[in-house]
Amino acid sequence: MQNEDVKEIYNKFLKQEEIGDYEFYRWSTNSILRSQYFMTLRCVLDFLTRVNSPARCLEVGPGPGTWTKKICEKFPQTNFTLVDISEEMLGQAKKNLSSDRINFFVSDFLQFSSLEKYQLFFSSRALEYFVDKNNFFLHLEGLLDFQARGFVITKTPHYFLSKLRGSVVKDFHSWQIAPQALRKIIEANGFKVIKIRPVTMRFPGVKIVFVNDLLFKLFHSCRMNFILQFLSESYSIEFEKL
């Protein structure tokens, strides 16, 4: 799968009439998704408390701008650059975000360039669609200021469980990366990893909101380990440019 394939998949998906407001579709159509929204929100807001107000923030794969809105509220003086390969998805972000502090770029991130440096980087649920993670962080390193902070949320791979269930993993979902493997890539490209933590939690095979919420309450502030990797649906990795 190439980045252009991701673009075509999302553009085609978002043109379906029944999708409508993607933010609502993604986070509000059932109780499990609503629970995941509040777990993610808690983790994003927690990260923002540890960051000084940046002059410029770069976000890759903003989707409909769900988390961009929260960062904008936290940092009212910050200028934002949003990069997404899907014009349909970026169109949804433009509808949801009305600010002269935000610039929108339809671009493959690996082709994106800027004369300005950024002090904050954010990306949620986009990294798993990049085949070459090393090239992603190599490119990112050149866009960030010294001591810039970064926060990435990405899917936790559970390919072994899929094999046990006899499920076939589609190419679109085949580039998820385990936390420690991602740590090595980030540290090899000029960054220091600060924290790796679970974000959305679920017990495999149990679709009960109460159970997932309890797991999150107990473990969301813990550093990632083998057990939490098994229990997490997604995780965050916080880092700083050296």
Give the tags.
Rossmann fold, 40% helix
Total strand count, please? 7
The helicity comes to 40-55%
Radius of gyration: 17 Å
The outline comes out as globular
Spans with pLDDT under 50 lasting ≥5 residues?
Answer: none
CATH class division: Alpha Beta
- How is the biggest beta sheet arranged? 7 strands, mixed
What's the helix-strand series? HHHEHEHEEHEHHEHHE
Give average pLDDT, whole number.
Answer: 88
The largest beta-sheet arranges its strands as 3-2-1-4-5-7-6
Number of helical runs? Answer: 10
CATH fold-level topology: Rossmann fold
- CATH superfamily placement: Vaccinia Virus protein VP39
Given helix and strand content, the structural type is: alpha/beta
How far is it from the N-terminal to the C-terminal residue, by CA?
32 Å
- Tell me the fraction of residues in β-strands, as a range: 15-25%
| Tally of structural domains | 1
Question: What CATH architecture would you give?
Answer: 3-Layer(aba) Sandwich
SSE topology:
Blueprint: H1 3-14, H2 22-27, H3 31-48, E1 56-60, H4 66-74, E2 79-84, H5 87-96, E3 102-106, E4 118-124, H6 133-141, E5 144-155, H7 159-165, H8 179-187, E6 191-198, H9 209-219, H10 226-231, E7 234-241
Parallel strand pairs: 1-2, 1-4, 2-3, 4-5
Antiparallel strand pairs: 5-7, 6-7
Helix pairs in contact: 3-4, 3-9
